[in-house]
Structures are given as C-alpha cells and as structure tokens.
C-alpha cells in the first residue's frame, strides 16, 4: 500500500498515464479479491467495509422493488439486521429465521418460510461469537432455486476456512478487509452477474456505478493483496488454528473446575473462535488478567453483538455475563495459548 | 498511521486496555479535525470521504422531515447534486441556485429564493474546477437566520485558504482527507451541535450513532494528523500557492498568442487552482506533454465534474474542450511551474 499514499496518489479516471496506472493497480487488486471470493473481477465492488457491503447488498437490491417478504437469520450481524429493520416502516414483511441452540439455521426451515413474495434471504457464513458455520450451500440452493436473492454475510470466514461463491452460490456476499489481515476501512461486495443492485450513496459514478466517491486506492490495494495471501494460505491456516483452538479448550478443561461450557461445541465452527461459558463473570477475568485480550458482552440495551448472538441461541443473562469470546490469529503461538490458559486459571483461583 | 495497521490493530469499544488506547487515539484525531474545522470535537463525525460526508449531511438531515423545498447551487459537486436528486421522486421541490459567469452565487439571490418550507440550502465553499470561492459567511447568515439548515461542501478549501465554521457559520460542513494530504478513504462531517441528523447506513452504532461500521482507525489517525498540519501551515501555504499560480498565469500569457483566457479570473479564487481556456484542444496538450498531469473535460453525457462546472458558468462545448484545469500543491516548485509553461508552449508550437 505504501507507494499509493505518496508517489502514486492519483485517482483513476483521467486520461493521463499516471491515472491509468492507478486504474491498472486497482484492476489487479480486484482480481485478488475475485480469486478469494471465487468470482469474476467485474463482480467485485470495493466498499469501505463489511457494514457498507451488507447495506449495499440489502438496500441496493431492494431499491427497485416495491414491497415483499424478507427473511433474515437471528444470528446476523447488526449491519444486516439494522439494514433490514430500516425498511420496517415501509411495505415490507420482515421475518426472522430462528437458530437452534448451536446457532444453526436449518435449511429446510428456510425453505418452509419462503413465500411467493419473498425478495431476499440473508444468512451469514459464520458467527463471530459462537463460531457456528452455516450450511450455506444447502440454503443458497434452496433459495436460489426459488428465484429469490440470497445474501451471505461472509465477513468472518475468509482466511479461516476455504469458502467461495463458486461453491456456495450466494447471489451477493460481503467481505471485510480487516477480518483477513487487510486494512481497516476496506471491504468488498460480490454481486452476481445479472443481479440488479442500485447504489445506496450518490455522487460520481465509480465501481461500476454501485459506489460513488474517490476510491480508497491504498485500501483497495491492501484488501487485494490480503485476499491473495488468504487464498494461498487458508488451508494451512485452518489446520493450525484448529490445533490452537483444541489446545486452548483442553487447557481450560484441565485448569477450571467445574469444567467450562464450550458454546456451540457440537457443530462445525470457525477454527479461530471459541466462546466459553466460565463459572465466573467474564469481566472479572478481564480485570484480573489485563494481559489477555478477549471480548465480553458489554451491553444488553442496546444489545451488543455478543449479547445478541448468545440470546439468539437461548442463553440467559447470567450465562451471557459469564461468557468470554476468544479468537486466535495466523501469528498466535502455542506459547500464547498456554499463557492464556494460565492467566484464566489464575483469575479463576483468585476469584474462588 | 503506521502502528495502527500493525501493533495497534484493535477497535475501540471493548473494556480491555488496548481497545481503550485506540479510543484515546481516535479522540486525539477528532480534536485535530475539530481544530481545522473550528468546532468542538463532538461535532466531528469520521466518514469514508467527502462523498459520504455530503450524503450524510443532506440525506441524514432530511430523513426526519416529510417534505419541503431544497436549494442547491449549480456549482456543487456531484455527491451533493446526486444526493439531492435522489429525492426528486419524493415530496420535495428541488431548485437550483444559478451562478454568474465567474461561478459566483449571489447571497441576495439565495435569500430571495428561500421559501417558508425551505429545509436545506447547499453551497460549496470553493469550486475545484474554476477555483471560485463563494461568500459563505453572507449566505450562511442569511439562511441560518431564517432557521434553515445550511450545508457547505468545504472539501476544496482546507490546506489552501483559512476557513472554519466559527467564521463561516454553516450548520454542516463536509471535509475530505485526501484533499489536504490526509489519506484517501478518510473524510469528516461537521454537524453543528443540535442539528438533527440520522445515519444513512445501518449497523453497530459508532460515531455518535451517525456512522456504523468498524472505524477506519489508521484513516482517522491520518486525517487527524493532516488536519493539524493544515491548520498550522495554511497561511504560508496560501501565500506560496498564490505566487505559483500568478507565475504560471504570467508564463502562459508570455508564451501563447492569442493570450489564453483564465477562467473566473475576476473573483476570489483558490490559490492552487487555475482553469485555462487555451487556443487549442486541451487533450492535444495532454497527448503531446505526457510529463504534465492536469485535468480535462472527459465526458459531456454523463457530464463529468469539469464539464458541469464549466457549463454552469455558461461555457460552450467548444470552450470546454479547450479548457485545462491545473492545480498545484504544497511541494510544487517554481521550476516545476516554469517547466509546465515550457511544455504547454511546446505543445502549442507543435499544434500550430
């Protein structure tokens, strides 16, 4: 990204050679994202992040439709739920697809909820709190075969598990750069060739007319490079992350008694994510183990992402307060895992 | 920005110390932008750029209003015009404020166009093609005294002339980071305390509830640092740029006969911008002087920014084709100005 902040600071779109060189660099970045997403480069729209991608897919595709029925899973990210909710005052019937206690959405239930006027179904690829991986291919096929737009918020999976639309068949799919080691402020939306989407912001037509405003050139370069890297190393990364996750869970089970509950343990889950229901309040651990960085539920009104995801799988307030969500990365070491277990054990001992 | 890509990669909003440190860095960046904009830090919303800032100011402030009259100058950026045009199908009367042949909007004419149901007036601080600087203080006072929201797209002025809302009194004001040496993909919107604005995208509430999505932390750090720098050096920069501009114009007049027309020469203009009507087609110069980077009109349907601005001041297609827009920066040297004049002279000689 570095030269695009300084010497290559132009924008594409002018006649001169400098601008054209920037255009070519953006094309190369777009090919990188297309490689990761499993689509053609012209199906990739650069955005400012996952939230904008989800908003564009949902609100942009419904802009040219007068009314209808929308199906959204209860495990979705706030940017999906809130985008759909923004339509609640209009001529839309909005229905939630429930998840089971493992966070799973049942494809047959999705099929049974489809109506003749269903315009959109949104189910995320994986949940960032519970790690639950959905049966996207099955859901996509059922929805797609009924001629309904299937949107998949896939922001959590890239760089963690192999996943692309050539296999998963979504009509639109959101990516977030910083979730796979790209820059913050970068995102992309896969829009299947032929899917009608209108822009949701207004200005100079850029990004195939779907996203106005000066391109964040370094951000696009960054997400493109990160996408190439994630494509290459995801198989190894997944295997490594899964070992770390198993080691972490085994470690916790050894040092904490009563044994902590691993949230959504019985389903296919992200290899880098684990939510643990501890026998003590999670923020006590956070306070006594400052070296350890992890997420806890912060607010139930308005409910934050962690609270909402845990509520969606039936957890009670007392359980939610005791839940800590840990995540690992490509550079996490076994020593860091072991040290994390030690820190949690110390906090547990101190609190007894 | 560098450490915020790597070691300080967290987002604000969690309890742990790392997240809180990021929150403090963002506060510092917000103070930098507030210093430049002449407002309080809590009146600054970080966005992904000038286009989003203009969209948020216009569509976000009108979201809670059922109908009304909107006044927009003919010199505005596409992100202002298109945001307003997106309302054209609804219960809105949209009216254009004309500009004179120098690109100037007459404050008295703005006052005469105000109606009892006017909800918004939008006039840019300065035009990026003609350089024309508007009488923002006079317009803002007239509009504000009638209780109407005055929005100013001020993306062109920062780092070039002293300008802030403590003097200019807009109710909302758009900034674009890369226009004053901040990063691409960064922007900000000043929202006057008390002005009602709703978000135009949906997700986790961030930025005082006005802009959802993970913060582009390095981008915010970058625009904050650039804003501090621009605050400090704008007086010297303006003087230096104005000398360069005068030198460039004198040079062109010496080497081209018939003398080129300086567009909007008779008004107060940006010190770094000059549009010149040459005696030959501007893209011929662009083709023969590849070393020189400048803007030409590219498309009349749809009209690009240069074409629209020149049309708005009454230029004919033949004149627009002969117009070249040059801009200078803080690091532009006298030698570069002289070399530019030489290149244009050579292109002119070759074309005769």
UniProtKB/TrEMBL annotation, chains A, B:
Cofactor(s) the protein requires to work = pyridoxal 5'-phosphate
Recorded catalytic activity of this chain's protein: (sulfur carrier)-H + L-cysteine = (sulfur carrier)-SH + L-alanine
Which is one GO molecular function term here? metal ion binding
Superkingdom field = Bacteria
Q: Which UniProt keywords apply?
A: Iron, Iron-sulfur, Metal-binding, Pyridoxal phosphate, Transferase
In terms of Gene3D superfamilies, this protein maps to: Aspartate Aminotransferase, domain 1 (3.90.1150.10), Type I PLP-dependent aspartate aminotransferase-like (Major domain) (3.40.640.10)
Q: Which residues form the Aminotransferase class V domain?
A: 15-278
Q: What class of enzyme is it?
A: transferase
Q: What EC number(s) does the entry state? A: 2.8.1.7
Q: Which family does it belong to?
A: Belongs to the class-V pyridoxal-phosphate-dependent aminotransferase family. NifS/IscS subfamily.
Name of the protein:
Cysteine desulfurase
């Amino acid at each position: 990204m570095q030269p695009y902040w300084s010497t290559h600071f132009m924008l594409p779109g002018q006649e001169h050679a400098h601008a054209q060189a920037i255009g070519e660099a953006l094309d190369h970045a777009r090919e990188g994202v297309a490689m990761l997403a499993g689509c053609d480069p012209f199906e990739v729209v650069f955005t400012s992040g996952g939230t904008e991608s989800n908003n564009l897919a949902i609100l942009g595709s419904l802009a040219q439709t007068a009314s209808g029925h929308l199906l959204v899973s209860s495990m979705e990210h706030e940017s999906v739920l809130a985008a759909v909710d923004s339509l609640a005052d209009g001529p839309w019937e909005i229905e939630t697809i429930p998840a089971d206690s493992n966070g799973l959405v049942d494809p047959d239930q999705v099929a049974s909820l489809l109506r003749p006027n269903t315009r959109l179904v949104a189910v995320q690829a994986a949940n960032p709190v519970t790690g639950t991986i959905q049966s996207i291919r099955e859901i996509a096929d059922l929805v797609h075969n009924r001629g309904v737009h299937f949107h998949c918020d896939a922001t959590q999976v890239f760089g963690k598990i192999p996943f692309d639309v050539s296999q998963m068949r979504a009509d639109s799919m959101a990516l977030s750069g910083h979730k796979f080691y790209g820059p913050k402020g970068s995102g992309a939306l896969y829009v299947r060739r032929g899917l009608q989407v209108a822009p949701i912001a207004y200005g100079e037509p850029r990004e195939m007319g779907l996203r106005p405003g000066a391109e964040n050139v370094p951000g696009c370069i960054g997400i493109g490079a990160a996408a190439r890297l994630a494509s290459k190393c995801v198989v190894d990364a997944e295997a490594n992350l899964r070992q770390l996750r198993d080691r972490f869970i085994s470690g916790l089970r050894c040092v904490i008694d009563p044994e902590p509950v691993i949230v959504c343990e019985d389903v296919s889950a992200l290899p880098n994510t684990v939510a643990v229901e501890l026998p003590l309040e999670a923020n006590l651990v956070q306070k006594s183990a400052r070296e350890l960085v992890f997420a806890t539920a912060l607010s139930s009104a308005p409910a934050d992402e962690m609270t909402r995801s845990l509520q969606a799988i039936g957890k009670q307030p007392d359980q939610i307060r005791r839940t800590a969500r840990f995540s690992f990365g490509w550079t996490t070491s076994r020593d860091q895992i072991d040290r994390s277990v030690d820190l949690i054990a110390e906090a547990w001992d101190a609190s007894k």
